[in-house]
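Deliverable D2.4 — example input (structure tokens):
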């Protein structure tokens, strides 16, 4: 318990005393145009703060905006992952064919109803593609 208290006291001191003192020493101009007049040494003293701000902007941007291939955005988590693109051709005779489009079916590309659980937990509305002969 004592170690936790000491750690929290050090953290509190860093946030309430040390950090404000450090920030007060930074050469932040009163106007935007003042940045153009900063010396090299003043820019160097601002570098850690600028890097922290840029890192936060990048993390928040990737979290809220994402990218073309942001981590965790894949839809297909298990079907033919070694293939560049999943393509299945199916010939059938019969009344209808029910195809999965949620990527969660254990019978992919056929639907096994796995989308129902997905819809419940994610408040989604995905369902299968049903193919049938034209009447």
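Example output (designed residues):
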């Amino acid at each position: 318990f004592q170690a936790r208290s000491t750690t929290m006291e050090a953290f509190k001191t860093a946030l309430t005393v040390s950090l404000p003192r450090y920030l007060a020493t930074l050469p932040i101009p009163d106007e935007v145009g003042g940045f153009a007049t900063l010396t090299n040494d003043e820019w160097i003293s601002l570098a850690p703060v600028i890097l922290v701000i840029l890192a936060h902007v990048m993390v928040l941007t990737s979290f809220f905006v994402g990218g073309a291939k942001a981590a965790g955005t894949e839809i297909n988590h298990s079907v033919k992952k070694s293939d560049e693109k999943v393509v299945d051709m199916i010939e059938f005779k019969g009344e209808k064919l029910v195809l999965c489009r949620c990527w969660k079916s254990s019978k992919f590309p056929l639907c096994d109803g796995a989308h129902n659980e997905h819809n419940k937990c994610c408040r989604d509305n995905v369902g299968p593609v049903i193919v049938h002969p034209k009447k």
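The helical segments are 2-24, 40-64, 115-122.
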